[in-house]
Structure formats: C-alpha cells, structure tokens
Amino acid sequence: MGKRKFHPDINTFYEAEAEILSARVKGVRAAVDHAGEKGRSNEISVSGLLRQYLPAEYGLSTGFVAYHDLNCVRNGQYDASKDKIHLSGQVDIIIYDALRSCPLVRLDGCDVFPIEAVYGYVEVKTSISSASDIRRLLAQSADLRRPKLRIYYGTSPGNPTGVDIHPLPNYISVRSFIFAFDGSKIGSEDVIAKSIWTQAKRFKGTDAFISGMYVNDCGFFALHPVNTATDPRNGMVIMDSKSPLMTFKNRMILDLSRFPRVPPGWAPAIDLYHRNEDDSIRLGPVIDIAAST
To answer: Where do the structural domains in the chain lie, given as residue ranges?
Structure first.
C-alpha cells in the first residue's frame, strides 16, 4: 500500500496560534494588575509574533517618528530655514527599514526613527470595546499617516559621483495596522465592520485608514480604498471571520512588500534632522586622494 497523501491544514495552525495568544492574555490579566505593564506585555507578544514571519528587512521597535515640516520644500527645493522637526506620539510597534536605515536616537525603552525609515506601524490594544475606540484608532492613523515628506540623498543626474538632495513631498503614507486581543464587548464581527464604516465616514478627506485590523475571536477587518472620483463612498470594509490571523499576516506582508522603495543608491538625509536652522547644507570638502598620496 502506498503512503496516505498528506494535506496540510494551515487554517488549523493559525487557529491554534490565536488560542495561544488568548491564553497568554488571560495569564497576564491574572498575574498583573498594572494597565501599563499589561499593555507592554501584549506589545511584546505581538512583536514576537510578527518577527516569526516578517522578512529580516523589516525591523520592529517601539517609540516615536520624527518628520520634517512640509513648508521646507518649495518648487522641489529644500529650504533649511523653513524646516522644523516634528515628533509623533508614541507608537506601540514601528515597522522600519532595517537594511537601509537606523534610529535617530536609540534608548533603552524606545527609539526615534526618521519618517524615511518607516514602512508602517501596529497599534496593540488589549480590547476594543466601543465605537469610540475605533474612532480614536482612526484619529491616530490620520495623525501618523499625515506626514508624507521624505528627503533623501541620491546620485546626481548625469554625474554618478555627485550627490543631490531629493525631497519627495507626496510620498505614500505609512501602513497602519491594529492588533486587538479582545472585541467581545463591542459585539459580533458585523457590528465591528459597521462601526468601522460609520466612523471612517467621519474622517473623509483625511489620511485616516486601516490597512489591517485583527480582533481575536472576532475577525479581520480592513478599509479598502475606492476611486472617489467615480465612487461616492469613502471606502469599503473587508472582513474575514474564518481565518482572521492568517489574513492579517498575509495582508501585512502584501502591503509592506508593495510599499515604494527609493532608487538604488539613495539614502535618508539623516543629517537634516540635527542641523541648526542657519546651517548651510554641506557634504564636506572634496579631496583628491590620488593627488594627496
């Protein structure tokens, strides 16, 4: 007799993984009474889960995102005298470019990243219990996705050894993800989907968006953009209650892989974050190595 042909059941694997996460949250709730420590424990759990399947090019950290004032770019030119550096609110999990970027500041408990390094973020919630929670998550996404200006150094056209500043004022917004361990208080998956749709309409015309939201024991949810020139809706809600954790992972990998990369040889203009306003932009003296030896 031949061997029985094996057909892997991936859905069951992800269901077991979700059960493990639920059990961990119950254990934390039973052992720790401090809300902040509970939240941090949940963030570590989600970060560990993401690390298992995200490629190494995506770094994971917690902290803040620094970004330039949009007024510092006029007619495609960077003006240091008009630049001010802004800082986001604290972000639970920052997904950043671990191959081509690094933090501006690395501390024991958190990091500060330039916007040029950031692909997306994950907000971790112990529970989502009301429409107000969803409204706050959308408001947070509007704030974090609003900064679009990114500034890079790159090769000069026609001069492969030259370096130019390349301001990109309308770069794509960062991807926004939400991971919630409990949604039982707000209701069924249909209630959550309708709540997302209702609250999203309040933010029409802003940068508010949910790239993917996983709610344990409820489902996966995401806003799907539409062409507002031909469709009066602000977007559509995607929902999956059969394999939500698997869908969340797949959606994250898809969205991050589709995030635009800058051309080869370009690098974030990190030094612009710590210059004084009256400093001129200098790349350093040009030294003829051959003549000096």
So the answer is: 35-274
